[in-house]
TrEMBL record:
GO molecular function, one term: DNA binding
A GO CC term assigned to this protein in UniProt: nucleosome
Protein name: F-BAR domain-containing protein
Annotated InterPro entries: H1/H5
Single GO BP term: nucleosome assembly
Positions of the UniProt region annotated as Disordered: 1-87
Domain of life: Eukaryota
Organism of provenance: Elysia marginata
Length: 87
């Protein structure tokens, strides 16, 4: 009886130790690879989006302002010339 009990306890302890060591090694390798890949992809995408948005907004605003100013100046000049001729 004593010999059988000792054999069972030794087998259980050996199996548990082997499983824990294998799991720890696999987790460490996967985490390091994923972090490096994600950082490189995020930096490239942010730079491209910022440049495109700034250029489009500035061009649209400048064109609208120039057209409005030209129309106002032409109307004022025509009215002044007509008044001088009548006098």
């Amino acid at each position: 009886m004593n010999g059988k009990k000792k054999k069972k306890k030794k087998k259980k302890k050996k199996k548990k130790k082997k499983k824990k060591k294998k799991k720890k090694k696999k987790k460490k390798k996967k985490k390091n690879k994923k972090k490096k890949k994600k950082k490189k992809k995020k930096k490239k995408k942010k730079k491209k989006k910022k440049k495109k948005k700034k250029k489009k907004k500035k061009r649209k605003k400048n064109k609208k302002k120039k057209k409005k100013n030209k129309i106002k100046k032409k109307k004022k000049k025509k009215k002044k010339r007509k008044k001088k001729k009548r006098l």
